[in-house]
Amino acid sequence: VRMPDAVSGETSGNYKPHDHGLQPENLLQDHHSNSGRGFSFSRYFDFSMSEADQYVLPNDQPVVELDCTEAFNGLTTKEKLYAHYLSKAAWNGGLIVLVQTSPESPLIFVLLYKLFSAQPVEELKKAALDGGDVSPDEFQALLVYTSGILTNSGNYKGFGDSKFIPNLPVSKFETIIKNSEAFRREPKIMQSLWDRCKDVIYLLKENLKNLGFHDKGMTTYYSSNCTLKDADFVSEVLKQKDIDFYNNRVFKIEEKDSVIYEIRLASVDTGNESEEEYKNCKIRITKGDYSKLLEQVVKNLHMAKEYAANEVEQKMLHCYEKSFQEGTLNDHKDGSRYWIKNKGPVVETYIGFIETYRDPAGMRGEFEGFVAMVNKEMSAKFADLVEKAEVLLPELPWPKNFEKDKFLRPDFTSLDVLTFSGSGIPAGINIPNYDEIRQNEGFKNVTLGNVIPANYKNTVMPFLTEEDKELLNKYRVKSFEVQVGLHELLGHGSGKLFYKKAGGEFNFDVKSVVNPLNGEPIESWYEDKDTYDSKFTTMGSSYEECRAECVGLYLCLNENVLKIFGFEGKEAEDVMYVNWLSLLYQSVGKCLEMYQPSTKTWLQAHSQARYVILRVLLEAGGDLITVTETEKGKDLLMKVDRTKLKTIGKKAIGDFLLKLQVYKSTGDVTAAREMYNKYSEVPVDGPYPWGKWRDIVLANKQPRKMFVQANTFLKDGEVILKTYDATHEGLIQSFVERFQASDVDVILEELVEKDQKYF
Fold this sequence. Notes:
The chain is of the alpha+beta class. The chain is 48% helix and 14% strand. The strands form six sheets. A six-stranded mixed beta sheet has the order 1-10-11-9-8-7. It has a four-stranded mixed beta sheet with strand order 3-4-6-5, with helices on one face. Strand 3 and strand 4 (259-266) form a beta hairpin. It is globular, with a radius of gyration of 25 Å.
């Protein structure tokens, strides 16, 4: 489970397409003058072109460096080699996310990788501007689009799951390609790549705007003929076969007389495992998804093992190797067990199919891998929080019976990230996500310390008073470190799941434990093979993030918690206030960007969670929060009465948190969904017409920052850290050099070819 940044912008910026950009008249002229055929408006878009700026990244899209130089230089030679090979494993595995995002994402990556690998960016720019009637703004738009593809691992945003398209006309994109050194060297290959993906790059039909099942969105976790009903059917099958969901995809094959569900496991090994009949369908288990990419992962994990600090790390990496080689998730679970036992490593890492946010059914994991160095000063504060956790847990607003029988003290460290591969970089993580390990054996919390300050550079904050802006600028990093600690350790790390085991035994006293909401005996629970994800499915991620955020808000009101982080007196009061203000500001000023009115769906779990909290606190009344439209259709003002946080605020969050935990503990999905959906609604009228105010939010949206990450290289047996400028040119160059000695382009094209019949 992960936590995103708190106050930075989350989607594309507040701007209009530039004069030569994606506007109807330019597209029209473009196709008449350059292709000899008229432009079919409906071919690309299902809406007016004035809406298109929601789907492009602005030319002023900010880029920031994820600086880890000091932490990396503090490593020994052995530790640097360990980090180097782990990073190579993470980056190669991270390419899997391209395949998991959309059918075209790997091809777009290969096209852009070849384009920018063949010559320096400045040379490519000169060729485009001198020989192709391309403007500087149009070339910049291509750089920004390329950065978007690289940092999101595909053409859908890692935070928000909406598609983005280039902010330059189709023909100008083509002109840049045809004036490039890459095209001169490989004209047939470059032309083929462009022909295969140019239309879909720009396509914004309704069912392609966002990720989701194919009737409403795009997904490659399931073939295009799969629905939620198919996903539920496959889940039923896998539960019976005791197969977890994290590392597989589902392909539905409809033949004349039968339906075959191919459940393809991610592994280096290939071939069919089994086939059997189930309810008039054939269930075929196969291996070999992402085989050649995972081969590179396994190879580098094996190399890293030689430089592991201890036997626990060696066993951990061995299990990961075996899991990726054979497609066996139980081996990854065993690796995770060793990982939680590896307390206080100098170099921290985790890798695999982890978070389920982007699977429309909420069960299959996106690949990610990170490598980081421990920040000892901040980690000491988190260690103190862990020490006091057993004193703080009883402060939470649910009975002792709803808490785990024993608090399994985790490792909690602050890390400076060297490498984070995937569709985005969070601020904090609580893993592993396997329920049986988290509930009974333990977990780890990490906060990514160098991510938080990088995210807060040059942030614009509308909708606030000048006084609140000043306080946010002063305390937002400090308050967010408090929130991350509480969110990860005592949020995701708290609460018991009630189980009825296979033999009929319960893991709670079914005779004495009562539901605190109604005083009645417990009437629902998890069956033996149930997990939280399999019960709560599509709602699960957002619901759990909401619970963890509420724990952070609730416990930060405790002065003893703030003392752990070094805050007392007025400063403690300010940090507490800013923590609440920061989250509520996200709710008002950012979260509605992630709501899709046409389908009445939320596109991002954390955004929905924060909006729900806002609705709960507004419902509490007492003018704890006020939001007013200060300029009709143009501006809002949010105020929070800090004198009421410990009274109205604490009671409202406490009561809501109790319901969240009771429904989760008892697996009461029906009650949970009814409550959560109510608060997730976006009304267009009433005292808080969020549906109308969404337009104001969109008009003020700020771009989400892109991170430039360093690379490591071997030179004469030493590991060299290479950093890059915090520009789009630097970001692109970092990716070009990251894969320069590999054949990732060939591998990705093969994967596209293998899967194309399913999409």
